[in-house]
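Sample pair:
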Amino acid sequence: MVSEGIEDYSKIPVEKVKFSKGIKVAFWFLRIYIILMVLLVIVGFSHVV
């Protein structure tokens, strides 16, 4: 691979990203919001049909 000018990056260790508490709370809020919106859409369509 090196002879062709392509370097092998598969041996580089990958670290897990550390999120702050505020970002974790924001993502949980988004998950709950999405679930509520999907439920509201289901309820709305059930009244139409």
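The two ends are 60 Å apart (CA to CA).
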